[in-house]
Amino acid sequence: MFLSGLDELDRKIVQLLIENARSSYSDIGQQIGISRVAVKARIQALETRGIIEEYTTIINPQKISGAVSCYFDIETTPEALAQVTGLLEANPVITQIYRVTGKNKLHVHAVAASGEEMEALIQNHIDTLPGVEKCECNIILSRVKDIKGLRL
């Protein structure tokens, strides 16, 4: 689907890494029928081409006692958009920022250690952003579906 620019072996490697990024070259090679060395070379090529950007551990904030996860949809004036994006990017509670369709609109995700920390983020940072015309805040109650990586 999304990986039409890759050959069949690379697609299989990427799928296996999406399922478990900790898989060894040997395990991947056994599953797709090539050597460990060939798997390593293909993964390094995918990394060099920027197709694989990073390997990471994903923490579920809802499983951490007291953590609060929230999405904000922020609409700014055109002249304030770059400044707002920079201010949000510099804040460590903000985990993701997306520029989305719509009038100077940002979709922002934040994870705070507590309700108090989220409230402080809203009062001291979100509410004080320059040029904000509209801001909607949604606290995440639970994960229903959360796909990592691409659907292949």
What does this protein look like?
- With 152 residues, the chain is α+β, with helices and mostly antiparallel strands.
- Helix content is 36%, strand content 21%.
- Strands 2-3-1-4 form a four-stranded antiparallel β-sheet.
Please describe the structure with a list of short key phrases separated by commas or semicolons.
elongated, four-stranded antiparallel β-sheet, 5 helices, 152 residues, alpha+beta
- What is the general shape? elongated
Unreliably modeled segments: none
Please bin the fraction of helical residues.
25-40%
Number of helices: 5
Order of helices and strands: HHHEHEEHE
Task: Determine the structural class based on helices, strands and strand pairing.
Answer: alpha+beta
Q: Termini distance?
A: 6 Å
> Radius of gyration from the CA trace?
20 Å
Which percent range describes the beta-strand content? Answer: 15-25%
Average pLDDT confidence is 89
Annotation, overall tally of beta strands:
4
> Within the largest sheet, what's the order of strands?
2-3-1-4
- Sheet having the most strands: 4 strands, antiparallel
